[in-house]
Amino acid sequence: MIALSLAETASVVGGQTHDIPDPSVLVHGPVVIDSRQVKDGSLFAAFVGERVDGHDYAEQAVRAGAVAVLAQRPVGVPAIVVEDVQTALGALARHVVRRLGATLVALTGSAGKTSTKDLIAQVLQHKAPTVFTPGSLNNEIGLPLTALTATEETRFLVLEMGARGIGHISYLTNLTPPQIGLVLNVGSAHIGEFGGREQIAQAKGELVEALPAEGTAILNADDPLVRAMASRTKAKVILFGESGEADVRAENVRLTDSGQPAFLLHTPSGASEVTMRLYGEHHVSNALAAAAVAHELGMSASEIATALSEAGSLSRWRMEVTERPDGVTIVNDAYNANPESMRAALRALAAMGKGRRTWAVLGKMAELGDEALAEHDAVGRLAVRLNVGKLVAVGGREASWLQLGAYNEGSWGEESVHVSDAQAAIDLLRSELRPGDVVLVKASRSVGLESVAQALLDAEGEVAAR
User: How many Å separate Cα 26 from the centre of its chain?
Assistant: First the structure.
């Protein structure tokens, strides 16, 4: 991070120094919340969790190289004591961001945030040093930790913002005020918590409301609830999508034989062909969003197309494609699931599996509330309509709804099977997989189906990752 003295840090967060012999010592390493991640010059933020109290690791953190601990009480080693560590962490991030001089790009949406954030970062890195959210650390702790990794050389800061309720994104934009705000979509993720899509749209739109008049809102022209957010901002609006009215759009969208999207990218500065390394047609919308950001920041259509064509997957378990030595292809998309991402993954599986036997190993989509039965049933039916070879529904009630939807869709549904847990799915697949098969593994994070994908890879020893 930008180097700050302990005295300045204490002033920024409104804390009191304790056991600090020299307040001029600089914090120049990363701010961390795990003592095992401490490096020389770090500031260790001691959070109190349900099972672990970070204050208990204060001495260990200082021994490992932390110059001080951000704490809620004196801990016997150099510390800045504050009333609330989370609030102090946010204040520190806000201070650093204001000093940066970097362009801050924030994005949100119901689906595709992490994949799109990774694309934006990889494209902008072609232009200037870029810092971005690792994985999906997009909450009130992960976001400031990411912002604090920026340095004087950073020119672009790309931050993913998640929301589980009204006001969450407003809180995050107050910590790290964006100049460019991107809203991808309004879908069904967390609909059970929000109460409906209109409430989700209200929460996501807080991002464009936070933009300054000289900022830019980048909105999905193909999603009516997102497009309507143009009325909620004084910033300039850029539309992306496949709509002819979009400023940044795709034409001639197609999938290669391996399931990778290709299209003609149009921007106000020109057009250029893109063939992506990622899998699934849903990445076209993500790529257009990234292209809109890059165009606004001065990149040409050809530069953007080249960067998009080179970009890969940076985050684990998101359409992570690996081929075993025997020709079985494992598609590990088990990080999370909602109805939109589940449908996109099934379509990608169908495209990748042309001429091959396909398996969809699916589990629960969480937090759907009253929509849960209908949405799981619809996914099971879609698997049948896409001619997926076999559906393996893993888990309890929601899995039974997946299997029932497939069964009720038609005679193919008899090829679906409901198993109790991940180990049962592993046993079934190990006994029935044949060389050349393609296996998609996907469910909400709480189901833990990444263990199925890993077990199938471990069974064959060393593999060759694409």
Answer: 33
Supply the pTM of this predicted model: 0.89
Which of helix, strand or coil describes residue 423?
A: helix
- In this structure, are strands 390-394 and 417-419 parallel, antiparallel, or unpaired? parallel
Residue 93: closest CA among 33, 12, 7? 12
pLDDT in tens, 68-101: 999 999 999 999 999 999 999 999 999 999 999 8
Q: Is 214 helix (H, G, I), strand (E, B) or coil?
A: coil
Got the DSSP string for 275-306?
E-SS-STTHHHHHHHHHHHHHHTT--HHHHHH
Indicate the SS3 state at residue 114: helix
Cα separation, 36 vs 29, whole angstroms: 14
Q: Rounded CA gap, 141 and 48, in Å?
A: 13
Mean predicted lDDT score pLDDT of the chain: 93
Mean pLDDT of 226-244: 96
Q: Can you tell me which residue has the tokens 């991070």? A: 1
Spell out the residues 6+ positions from residue 11 whose beta carbon is closer than 8 angstroms to its own. Answer: none
